[in-house]
Specification:
Length: about 500
Amino acid sequence: MGIIQKDAFRTMLISYGGIGLGYLNKGLLFLLILTTEQIGLINLIIAVGVLFAQFANFGTVYATWKFVPFFKNKSNNHYGFLSLMLLIVLIGIIVCLTIALLLKSQIENIYVQKSALFIDYYYWVFPIGIAYVLYLVLEVFLRSFYKNILSAFAYEIVLRLALTILLLLLWMNWINFHWFVILHSLIYIIPTFMLLFYLQQLGELNVSFKHIRIAKRFQKIIIYFSAFSYFNTLGTVFVTSLDVMMIAQLIGLKATGVYATVIFLSSALQVPYKSIVRVGSPLIADYWKHREFDKMEELYKKVSSVALIIGLSSFWILWILIDWIFTFLKPEFGVGIWVFLFIMIGRLVDMYFGLNGAIFSTSKKYKYEIVFTLFLILSVFFLNLLLIPVYGIVGAAISTSMAIILYNFGRLLFVYFAFKLHPFQKNQFVVLSLFILNVVLHNLVISWIDSQWLEILSSLILFSFTFLFPIWYFQLEAEFNNYFLKAYHFIKNRKT
């Protein structure tokens, strides 16, 4: 867990810096400078662009995780593995771009009634999609060599700084909204070029389709795996994009703007979890290679325990502040409080089950993952059709949360019965009991308080003494305590 803890802490700091910039952009500048409809348009373009990238990657993300450990050999340029992945992605881009252009009129018909503005900027989905799919391949290739920092910095910090600059240019009337949309799509190229330059500096950017030296039979195995993993890479990203696209279709861009903003506001809660998974996932592939099941199970349990504590803590702190936070937003954002609640229920379950996706997708039984992914996509789609017309954007949050919970429980059971691995530890049930106790006490205390500030202060103090302090004092999760110590030493060293 040492490698994970060190790199995860660094990427967590970078991610929190990115979240800070993100809140400045989407939590402040978007709301001050853009209309709710314009916010919805930007988020719809991003959602469709990200979905394009997921379709165009053709399963290379999980293939890189799984097979790079078997082909690591710098003197032989890893047998041209990166070249093979980029070749597959290039084919994916051409295929998806062709389909998207051929279906343009049909796609426009879907949005013409509720989100007509999207039609004017349809083509600017593609720069985001192409740049992002290339970023995904390069980023996961670097992760396979435990190079996590720059890719996180490029996407979390540099990209968001570029967006901040564009927003300020729009605010000062140096550009209009039309050019803002165009430039916003083009800045997604920046992180991709940064990773290309970094690979060049490392001596790892040796791309030549003519010199792919992976044996034909291994190429077939990789391509076969990529084909089955293709739908798996759509998974949760597709679900998030599907929500945004269906809200834009069924309700309109204003509702899309509200929903996407609340989803972003809740994304800060997953930063530590994503940092841990970013570093831990490549280790799972190494454990499979060396058949180190004891290490895999230990990692699985530790990641789940840390994610549970961090997830519950960050969720409850933000929930205590939620009413105050939403006083800064426009009145139409009020319904977003319930969107946040239901989305976070699903995300907390997703965080707790931690690495089951990485274990599943890099195992020999990876083909069965397609069943769960199809279930996730179809359940969200049909639940959205059922609930969005009745409950609006809250219905979208409920459907997504329900689908993610069922999806994770299904994968948990499969991983357990197939590999005898599970994330459960006794200390986790103590943590959950402490959290439930805190919720009960919180509701009792606030019923006697009329002041909002006094309610917030008393709730935070109560949470600290009934949840955080017992976890720290009784060392219910050693890794969680270590994160506190690392944060303390980091701040202390900065001061000195």
